[in-house]
Known about the structure:
This protein is an alpha+beta fold.
Amino acid sequence: MGVLDKLGTDKVFAYFEEITKIPHGSGSEHALSDYIMDFAKERNLYCRKETIGNVVVKKAAAKGYEQIPSVILQGHLDMVCEKLAGTNHDFTKDPLDIFIDGDFIRAKGTTLGADNGIAVAYMLAILDKADMLHPAIEMIFTVEEETGMDGAKTLDTSDLEGKYFINMDSEEEGKFLISCCGGRKVYAKLPVERTKKTVDEITYLLQIRGLKGGHSGSDIHLQRANANKLMGRVLQALQKEIPFGLVSVDGGKMDNAICREAEAVLTVTKENAEKAEKIVAKMEKMLQEEYHCIETDMMIAWEKAQEETEEVLQEEWKKRTISMLLLLPYGVETMSVDIHGLVESSNNLGVVRTQNDGIYFVNAVRSAVATRKEMICEKIKELTALCGGTATENSDYPGWVYDKDSKLLVVLQKAYKKATGREPELTAMHAGVECGLFAEKMKGLDMVSLGPEMYDVHTPDERVSISSTIRMWEFLKEALQGMKDME
């Protein structure tokens, strides 16, 4: 028996468990794409797979629904691959180790991939259910959403006829997303130069661990610490008190995840090693006090490295690297003046990586206002230039503007009230969703994004509510059946 077999619900949980057995990190979704293609072919459904890995599947309308415009259901195949330090898991080949924890499904030591595996499971369940009432359905399974929405950007929409579009990449039940921000990645690079360390210096490892992390869009307002930014503060504190060499600094894996862990390799003389340890301990205490209500498990460790290094950054490049860590923007930049409590603009320094040709700083810029997105990007480029580096941009994606005349929204509101007894809340989101790209590619789409309750996505604490998943499944069936009212 599978872990989730006892949960039932028209095979939604069974298909989700199947998905967790198939590696599908961003850029490695082809095995899951092939699974969906085989699934569709077994049911004699129209299907096609694009070179990048996107899959389109179509299912004919139920009797009595033939005259209603097609409905597009869309979710993404890839997941964010994060794991706790010490967890022995290979995301390229190992199945996720899922388990039930009360009302939640979780994975041991890793992200769960409910973002967006639950959407895929819903879609497979709809394709499989022969007696379901619905208009003609076009299913879009995109790839590489988490790393820049490349699947949605390249998708061929020429054979799609849908007028109504339901994206299932939202994470709060009862909140219908009707608008989102746009975004862009900015890659800053310092082309550092290196020199030999002095003979009396010893190599040490400085580590920041235990932060909560989270989604760099939907969680940015929570003021969680970013390990890359904290590393800048600790290195600056050391720089003010003692001489040291900086070998490397690395933190984060994804630009759209708030950095949970970072480490730097340093060299100091034996006489200064004890001073450095005291400075680090002082900074740990200070930062723990600053974040005492938010980051309860923060740790900053100082220990002798297992291997000695031969080279360090030249002094000027060390200073510039620390300046970049300190001064690159992180967190909320502006709040919306139209929607109370909504973040309008932000930046996340998600990844810092030391490589042979330099040090890279990867930023995820978001804004609902295009000109403010440009302003933040210019700020990053200006700082990088002042520090002697260069900055490039890519993965730009548009926002999605609310349609006050949405017919789809009316049907979904009615269906949610009937299925749950509650009125849904309409929200805008400070994160990019693929709706923005589809709105640009397929003019005139009537769109809403929704999903079940999930928590701490993009982190090893990711979990999805079982009861919410069930409620949203009943709602989806009611909504598709209720689309007959749109004739």
